[in-house]
């Protein structure tokens, strides 16, 4: 731990890496540290990342996460360790599936299903990367707006363009870990899960009305890992709001590597309730 | 049961409705009929629809399904009834969540998490419906290619256009139940789940190589129900392949009502393995 902007980044990133270093209480039970500094509730990306870490710890190293589906059930409480109970749904030759329930004070706050696959060759196709996007080096780093943005270097892209066609209105950000991560592909997937939780950002109404007018919370979060990517190298994260109705907002997103490969697809539904 | 094309449709649809009329073995255990006529394996859309039906049967009528996330674990066997075991994850004032495990011969073949919400008002936004699509009446009904397409009236749209921008290559079909369904919104959601499972259709490689060259199976399936829609009225189902790699293909899809409202969003990952 030392002072100064550059080393501060490293230190904050080190705290995230430490959050993903779970304590193994039993073969299929893990405990995740959960610092108490964040006000309100635990950042959903942290819970998703820890849960994916727990699931992966019960899977052979030659199987990698290719998808996850999760629901947020109750707000996580800062300062209370989170226990992750893993259920071994299926162990197959090609595919392995796990269920994880995240628990605080005896209550499930989150659950996640994840599927892991042994690497195999196959056909290759992807939605085209957005074109004409400025390099991250030419954009300013966003001010960290709280602990959970601290470990990430995020650069908002002006005039965002969608993958595939380049026309849709979308929110877009270059993002990477603010420092170098260990060479562990499973860790990189977990950090990608962490940074993928952008909450209600990008939903059109939020751009037009004060943030305080909304009560929001993540409802679900899904990810598909298509191609290996390092979370400490730039990922172009494009988020497209799809629908808002009934107090809920759905967005989907894509993460392309700097080389233009589609690394991750995500979907997230959030509560977007107007305060009365 | 009677002969002739029009009444045959009704009869086949009646069989689908009967599949969704589950036997309640215990409060949270249901048994679904599973006819043995289909060769190979059970149609995934049937299992998803029955599982959603089971989940909904344990939820207060004023909560409606707004999302589901599911994994296909093992191929379902035709001719063997499927038992659906429901776990009550959470009962909340606004949101209720359920977990369903589908079982045959003691093995889980499928699991599903679903979230139900009490209707509430809120802001409204949606990705724009595809424009310039021909009316379903002007298109030919696709030949039923097996039992699981029988209950549906499907009309392939030539030159498909994507929602939002109208440029992406996509697969598009007008689809509705081939007859009138009872006025039960939960049943309509289940039939929508049934018809949403299009498997690997739309993935670009499949258009170019013989279908026999691929081994395919659904891996996961997710849906978000944004606005109430009848499954016996036309839905414009647009499917966009997003990525193919590692033997897997991900597509997302949208269903717009004829009035241009976004009713459903879905995602599906399928195994797309080339036969050796």
Notes on the protein architecture:
The structure is a homodimer of 276-residue chains. With 276 residues, the first copy, chain A, is α+β, with helices and mostly antiparallel strands. The first copy, chain A, has helices spanning 5-19, 44-56, 185-196, 204-208, and strands spanning 23-26, 29-32, 63-72, 82-91, 95-104, 107-118, 125-126, 152-156, 171-177, 214-225, 235-245, 248-257, 262-274. A twelve-stranded antiparallel β-sheet of chain A has the order 1-2-4-5-6-3-10-13-12-11-9-8. In chain A, a hairpin with a 2-residue loop joins strand 5 (95-104) and strand 6 (107-118). In chain A, helix 2 (44-56) runs antiparallel to helix 3 (185-196). The longest helix of chain A is centred in the N-terminal third of the chain and has 15 residues, at 5-19. The interface between A and B is large, with 60 and 60 residues. Strand 7 of chain A pairs antiparallel with strand 11 (235-245) of chain B.
Largest sheet of chain A: 12 strands, antiparallel
The Rg value of chain A, from CA coordinates, equals 18 Å
Distance N terminus to C terminus of chain A?
45 Å
Task: For the largest sheet of chain A, list the strands in their spatial order.
Answer: 1-2-4-5-6-3-10-13-12-11-9-8
The portion of residues forming beta strands of chain A comes to 35-45%
Give the number of DSSP strands of chain A: 13
Count of helix runs of chain A: 4
**Major protein interface:** A-B, 60 and 60 residues
Query: What is the SS-derived class of chain A?
Result: alpha+beta
Outline of chain A, from the CA principal axes?
Answer: globular
